[in-house]
Amino acid sequence: MWLRPPLPLSDHPGPGGAGGDPDLRRRSCGTAWEGGDAVILANGALLPDSDLPKVLSGLEAEINHTRSASPLEAEAVVDACATLLDRLDQGELDHLLSRFATPQLLDTLGRYRHMLQSESLRYKLAVELDGLWTGERPRPFGRSVVLPLGTLLHIAAGNIEGLPAFSALEGLLTGNVNLLKLPSGDTGLSLALLKLLTDTQPDLAPYLYVFSIPSADRTSLEVLASLADGIVTWGGDEAVRAARSMAPAGCKLIEWSHRLSFAYVSGRPPEEEWYALARHILSTGGLLCSSCQVIYLDTDSLDDGRAFCHSFLPILERAAAACHPPPGQAAQATLHGYEHFLEQTVRNTGAQVFLGRGCSVTLCPDQELELSPLHGNILVKRLPRSQLFSVLRRQKGRLQTAGLLCPPEEREELTALLVRAGLTRITSAGTMSAPFPGAGHDGEHPLRRYVRIVDIE
């Protein structure tokens, strides 16, 4: 499997061997991944960043040529992904993973691996497009057909490596031309994945362009935006505002902005559920929209809150040790926890910080849903279910996942309450960030937003 512990770099074959494309190895690993010139992926070719003006000047003509022909077939993308998985399993990107992938990242990417499998992609198409992609549908006036939106500009977020590639993949599945802006600090895993994909199926190359344009280069970004029929934005409020300001009139805005997620605890769940929640907190580091930021307790008792923190901290410490973080990351988590402790002390917030090894638990006096200090440092707040709806509605439009820990007989009642409050995913404690084939993004099916329905008389 491609996410087994990667071989040391010296154990990989040299250029031209089973280690993969020597051009990719030489140009990508020696540039974007090692601090040199960034690279561009354009029509299947890796180009130096200095070619950006030339690429942008000819991009409209290239896109028009591609889109004037027959649309890309979804099955070609599905087959290419199956071949890509085979090549990854043979270790063609192990040289990157060995350098940049933490154990937590390997675990996360491993959970996303099945999303590239043929059956998962076909299921995604069937569920999200409700069978519309299979061909024309007869109508009383004639027929309807689903076609690509056209050209998508993806402005990717950098909270986890490799996810920008999945955004572009959704655009490919719907037959769009995709312009992908990588996030700052990207180590190049998405670029490498997409280069390998176009090598696997050259027919995809005209539908995929990848750029590492900095957000400050507004002139270049406005060129890309001017070519787009839709702008797909992943990120916070600032990124969304920037995309809106660049979007030309008539351009569709598709915003996957930051969301907040939490765990809700009622009763005394078994310890394995506590440990599953702790592993989730440590493995995601609080960096995903689906990451638990706050553990809400169905109580108003301060004594119950303290008792929970005393009990949960050793479980969180055990999960932190099991994650085997590299020394620098473990030190960073401890530093985050200590800084948070000092901040609460100086501000005299009334919060109680329970410091652990590589993690911390903070019992807060308020009920607001907010970001945690991240990296294994979690907030705990008391929120009786009678107050749950009104508190959560203060974050309307930003709610995503609730990990529910409760007795089986209470699950349906609490699920209904959370859904009415605006949550779009209800899961168990350990699967808050688990990907599910056909699942929505923030309550919507993304593929439906990347297509248009054409009625023909």
UniProtKB/TrEMBL annotation:
Family annotation (InterPro entries): Ald_DH/histidinol_DH, CoA_reduct_LuxC
Protein name, entry field: Acyl-CoA reductase
Organism: Flintibacter hominis
GO terms of molecular function: acyl-CoA dehydrogenase activity
One record GO biological process: bioluminescence
Keyword S-adenosyl-L-methionine in record: no
Keywords: NADP
Segments for region (Disordered): 1-26
Ribosomal protein in keyword set: no
